[in-house]
Amino acid sequence: MKTISVNNDYREVVFEYTTEDGKTLPILFREWFNPPRIQAKFDDNFAVCNGYPDVATMVEQTVGLGTMLIMFGGVPDWIDVDRQGQFMFVGAYSNLNLN
Q: What's the pTM?
């Protein structure tokens, strides 16, 4: 992983994921300092790394867009990731696990 920026709140790093066909996809992570938290940019590259062709398909095949709209008002840009690779959306009033 390569650090691309650091500020008082978090550090951003890029992990380069290589697909089976040899394509390199950058995955952006934020490591928050206080409280400690890791987030990944929830984009098509993240979806491909998790076996989906894009974000829209990942959302529909996991929880559905309707659920996202009700719980978060849309599809969030960032998703929380724990150190074991589990991920979930964290909202002000609810959490949604995609694993």
A: 0.83
